[in-house]
From TrEMBL:
Residues 74-103 are annotated as: Disordered. PANTHER family: SINGLE MYB HISTONE 4, TELOMERE REPEAT-BINDING FACTOR 1. Residues 5-57 form the Myb-like domain. Residues 124-192 form the H15 domain. One of its GO terms (molecular function) is double-stranded telomeric DNA binding. SMART domains: H15, SANT. The keyword Transcription applies. Residues 243-284 form a coiled coil. The lineage of its organism: Eukaryota, Viridiplantae, Streptophyta, Embryophyta, Tracheophyta. It is found in: Chromosome; Nucleus, Nucleolus. Residues 1-33 form the HTH myb-type domain. This is MYB transcription factor. It comes from Aquilegia coerulea (Rocky mountain columbine). InterPro entries: Histone_H1/H5_H15, Homeodomain-like_sf, Myb_dom, SANT/Myb, SMH1-6, WH-like_DNA-bd_sf, WH_DNA-bd_sf.
Amino acid sequence: MGAPKQKWTSEEEAALKAGVVKHGSGKWRTILKDPEYSSILSLRSNVDLKDKWRNMSVTANGWGSREKARMALRRSQHTYRSDEESSECPDLDSDEEEEEEEIVGAKPLTISNGMLQIASPKQSGSRLENLIIEAITSLKEPSGSNKTNIAMYIEDQYNTPPNFKRILSAKLKGLATNGKLIKVNRKYRIAPSAIFSQVRRNSVMPVLEGRHKEPVRVEKDDIRNLMKSQIDAELAKMRTMSVQEAAAAAARAVAEAEAAMAEAEEAAKEAEAAEADADAAQAFAEAAMTTLKNRYTTNLMVHG
DNA sequence: ACAGCAAGGATGTCCTAACT
DNA sequence: AGTTAGGACATCCTTGCTGT
């Protein structure tokens, strides 16, 4: 190779991490230009920053065989604590305790019939599509989330297979093609129809933000809280019911869920129609602007 | 056309296990 | 204990895409 390898110092890594926190991942040039980090990262290019960030993400989430071997060695020497949350990604500290926490906190994902599934009993059967939607929703990035951030989110939450990035790329491409995601500037946003089908699976209606061109965002925590409180209330009711009453209540719940689904479907159609309206309106506005500009220029030419 | 970025290939470095 | 082979990781480099 041409240039000799320059190992990253902890100071450089810290500057990179701080830069990403401040400007976001993908803004490598901006981070380099930031006077706060430019002196520390003066020997690095934007590509170096990108590569290092990639490596840091891999080290923090995807455990290579070297780490596995180390962990196996340690496992044989002492036992682990198992009640800690996994740390933030990417992790710069090579602190042993944090490494252990990540392994313990990771939720394994498995591939079955070409679909990515979570092996955790709570969420078994979840598909990669759902995870992607969850990631984009949770990241709450105004202009959408790029592939790296989506991958990092999922890898942070779940233990992913080694070829996860490739699977994710293919899935994102597929979702963008079939219209479930909208890709703008390498960033992905959720198409309204995808949100409604996601919500339908959760049997909860989202709060619509009116006829807006921006995709409707569903607050995951709101859904979770709503579902939990609803379930708690239902369970409390059911404890006091007879078998017949419980059966009747269940039938009513099914009917309500079906009605909600139909309503959601209708709302999805409306949202899509609204989007089309907005596009048409924008096209009209642009045409009007062009006409006005032309008239203005003609007037200028005629009247001086 | 140019700049900036992501993706992926190429290659040096490090680590571990096996062997002597 | 020293050496070596193989694998994994870290970094550099190239290419193609996208936006201005």
